[in-house]
Design a protein that fits this description.
By secondary structure, this protein is an alpha/beta fold. The chain has helices at 16-21, 35-41, 58-63, 82-87, 100-115, 118-126, 155-166, 181-187, 194-200, 220-225, 243-251, 271-274, 290-309; strands at residues 3-6, 23-25, 47-49, 69-71, 91-93, 147-151, 170-174, 189-191, 203-206, 231-234, 257-260, 279-281.
Length: 318
């Protein structure tokens, strides 16, 4: 019987089919196994399930001599040394379907929260100094009729576009490869260069995958191109944004606001960001509903069963 090591404590509702077929080990008395515990346990397992914050590197793979599959509990897989896994003949899978709609939903929520200053108003109303009730004071920005620039028009980007289009926004996007015209028509979306997107968009959402090429792709130069009324949203990965450059432009009001669900050194957040009132911060919560997290477990389980038994299609990344 294959043995599966799950690094994070997941609810049993999403694991039943896996536990019926394989020997499954996961934390019971705490939330997650430490790296040292994984290194100690991994030699006896064929499958490892890391979550998006657990980095699976060469040391773990070399210690896991029996490893055949790394079934990631997340859509992004920058937490896994995929090149090393490929070299060692270890398959890597991710979960793009169960994560798509909740992430897009959360991204649109962050867009509204930052542009319409929802978080700011909530904090100020609870504070001793309060907030101005004046007609024009401390005003937010409209969403209807504004341009949303989507960087990375994949599954999540398209789901975000659908929500934005329904709210009366105009869509432009940038991909390395332009989408089929039928998809552009569906979202009334126009492909533009990255520079054009940065210069013309009222709201800018980062939805591209993290790769070595996209490291700090949004930095001082990119922020310098944005409108002073621009709102920047990141629900992709933190290492794609130069957070210090972002903090600088927010502090100097060179862009209007930002909303972040991901950070370069999670769970640590750059202290400067915590001090600013024009950034909405969330704790990597794009998929954080009970129903969605169970669906993620189910998709992760299907990858494992599909890999060994062929009963399900799998989302393999190498």
């Amino acid at each position: 019987m294959k043995r599966v090591l799950i690094a994070y404590r997941l609810k049993p509702e999403g694991l039943r089919e896996l536990e019926d077929r394989y020997e499954v080990t996961l934390p019971v008395e705490k939330s997650y196994f430490s790296r040292e515990e994984v290194l100690e346990l991994i030699p006896d397992y064929e499958v490892l399930v890391p979550n998006f914050s657990f980095y699976t590197d060469r040391e773990i793979m070399e210690r896991g001599a029996k490893l055949e599959l790394i079934s990631n509990y997340g859509v992004g897989y920058n937490n896994i040394d995929v090149a090393c896994a490929t070299e060692k003949g270890i398959a890597v899978t991710n979960i793009p379907h169960s994560t798509c709609e909740p992430t897009a939903e959360f991204a649109f929520g962050l867009l509204l929260a930052a542009g319409r200053r929802i978080g700011y108003y909530d904090r100020k109303l609870r504070s001793p100094e309060g907030v101005s009730w004046g007609v024009y004071a401390e005003a937010g920005l409209p969403v209807y009729g504004k341009q949303l620039g989507i960087i990375g028009m994949g599954r999540i980007g398209q789901s975000l576009a659908r929500r934005a289009l329904a709210s009366g926004m105009e869509i432009v996007y940038h991909n390395r490869n332009r989408l089929d015209k039928s998809i552009e028509k569906m979202y009334q979306a126009q492909w533009v260069t990255l520079d054009q997107l940065l210069q013309t968009s009222d709201y800018i959402s980062l939805n591209a995958p993290s790769t070595p090429e996209t490291y700090h792709m949004i930095g001082e130069r990119a922020f310098g191109m944005m409108k002073p009324t621009a709102v920047f949203i990141n629900t992709a990965r933190g290492d794609m944004v130069d957070e210090r450059a972002l903090a600088t432009v927010l502090k100097s009001r060179k862009i209007f606001a930002a909303a972040l669900d991901v950070y370069e050194n999670e769970p640590q957040i750059l202290p400067e960001l915590l001090m600013l009132d024009n950034v909405v911060l969330a704790p990597h919560a794009g998929t954080k509903t009970l129903e969605d997290r169970i669906r993620m477990s189910e998709e992760m389980v299907q990858n494992i069963i599909g890999f060994y038994e062929g009963r399900y299609p799998i989302s393999r990344v190498n």
